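Complex record, two chains
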Amino acid sequence: MSVRAGAGSSLTALISLILLYVLLIILVLVFAGQVLGDLSFTRSSAGAAVIIIAIVFPLLLLSFVIINLVRLIRQRAVGRPGARFKSRLLLFFAVVVLLASVPQAVLSVNFIRAATDAWFSAETGHAIRGAQDITLAFFGQKQDDLKSFVDSRFLSGLLEGLESQPGRVWERIKGVNPEIDSMQVFDPLFQETHFAGPEEFRIPSLRAAASRDGQITRESAAAVSFLLVRTSYAPRGLDGSKYTVMFSMGLPAGFDATAGRLADALEFFVQLELFQSNFVIAIALFYAFFAVPLMLLSVLVSFFLSEEIIRPIVSLEEATRRIAEGDFSIRILSRRGDELSTLVDSFNRMVSELARTRTKMIQTEKIAAWQEIAQRLAHEIKNPLTPIRLAAERSLRKYESSSSDFDSVFRNSVKSIVGEVDNLNALLTEFREFSRLPAPSLQQVALRPIVEEVAATYGQQSRHTIATDGVPDQFTVDADPGQLKQLLVNLCKNALEAMPDGGEIRIAADVIKKGEDTFGRIQVEDSGPGIPSEHQESIFKPYVTTKRHGTGLGLAIVERIVFDHHGQIWFETQPGVGTTFYLDLPSAADQSDEGQE
Amino acid sequence: MLWPHCSRTDSRKSLVKGFSGVFLLLAASTLPAQLQHQAIIQPTSDYLSVSMTVAGAEVEALFETLHEGMRVRVEYRIRISYPRDRPLRLLGDRLLREFRPSVEARWDPFLAAYVMVEDDGTTFSYADEATFYADLFSLANYRIPWSAIRREPGLVVEASAEYTPIVFVPGLSILSLFAANRSDSSPWSRHILDPWVADP
């Protein structure tokens, strides 16, 4: 017979926990990567799946935790070995998880709050807005400069000769206003006639045709951006036909990108400023969204670990219980390598040693018992042999001497011999009964009729009374009726013999509870002299008697019957007052109305 | 009334903080949608034309949002369905395709104009507020070619518009999980067509 401790039966649970943990980590990575990025992925089927898993996962974990908790509560209710210890371990683990999680959560949320407060303070806002204002002011200045230039009354003079010598015109313009970066000239048919400046500033003729005089636009081409304005020039002698001139003023390199980044930063800042409190709450809830499953998973791990820890202990408890029941074949299996396995190995060695010792003890006890029985029997048989021999020898002497009183001596001698032979027969009968006491055949037995029968048999002696009114009419015990009667007879005989000058015997019964078990308690009380203290320890031993003609088996038989009924017997005695024997016999019947201890 | 605009009246300091803000968010989410739309579904031989005009968005709040540097978004949702056969009619129409043309708008301080960007990247700028507002909240002649949907009698076209008063920048998109920028949607309008009637 073996009990398994710390074996690999929990491998499935371990793998499940690892899978759950990996799933949680994947969820955190996927969701955390997207949640601060673009949440539009939640509209996709994959995103929806992630959302569903993220919602179902904690519920799944919660249900696992609840199932395990309910199981633990049930285990505690039925008193499963180790359940209380497991609860305590679980509580410790949970406390540890909480102790670790709470500061982390507080720290994380406060860190985010502090970070958002610090990074997006009012000063930061002023800086971003100020930067945008400066950029806008610079941009506006450039626009104003260009506008002033094209609105200038000197411009028409500068453009003189544009149709014939545009190169010289461009030189004059650059001389007057070096800020102008390009000049593109179109004839009245919007055919380009001249371009001066960086090639990136050149625009298509259609674009020029679509614009209006004096309208300033911002253009972007390749990596540059510039301001563009259109003006018209009517050369003399062309019947009012006008040339179109596009002037450009370049903006600093990266102006568009910087302006775009500023706009984005401002947008982000304004939104964060607007929703900062919600953002912190959202982050906290998001944290909880994954922290709670993590905590639940930790609790599940706690269940697993506590089960792993208590399993050897439960095995030990079960093994000790079986040993207590007499099963010395029990052994505990365990994994090698840890301290618990060392303990288990020690336990197994101890059990083996106990089994060997017990076998030796039993053998020794058997030999001792047989030796004692042999001595007792020899003693008890030898005792009557002496008076038998004396009586026979006396009769023989009278007969050989033809004594006149031979008849009377012979009669007395034969009577004496017959009496001693009767004693020997009684002794051997009782011995046989003790040795052949059968296993009890348990049934529900009403106690009162048996008690009354015993009282009727032994209560007839004039100097003794047996009171049975302490036994309720409906009182029953689970016992063998014959053995129960013998038990009561022996106790009553023992009491009667202890009170040769008369006395009272009181028999009572009651129902008691010991934990969850119900017992029927029978009391047999006498008013005798009590049991001397030197005999109190040995009164249940066979062949121990204080009476001249006692066999010393009466109380031994009583104890044997009680033992076979899985009951208990003990006594209370007081010199000069009397002795009370208590017998607790297991009872399946509910007689709780009749009394409880 | 949309919550973000309510909270940004005179000063940002007046923002309802903490959990009371969340409570207000939840309370606002129970308010009935005020956005309305009109849809004109016009089948032609080559395509199905859908035009929509949306009303109900708060004008003042819209321009305030734009001038603070944020963007707004209008999404037009068009569902093309067909009725199921009689035994399965209780399950509703069978969705064939869904189209979601959208526009995002912002204020460009350099251009001093409202810039509207369609989902295909087409950009428009408006100096005039009224024109910008009208264009933002209208979908003109959105064409769904018959090749994209099956042309059968009993075609069901459902239309709705969703107005997002603040488009979150990505770093704050987590707030959309908590409906901080609760979008407003117009009720779905349902149009049952028989495209063969319009077929010349």
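Note: Confidence is low (pLDDT under 50) at residues 1-33, 195-200 of chain B.
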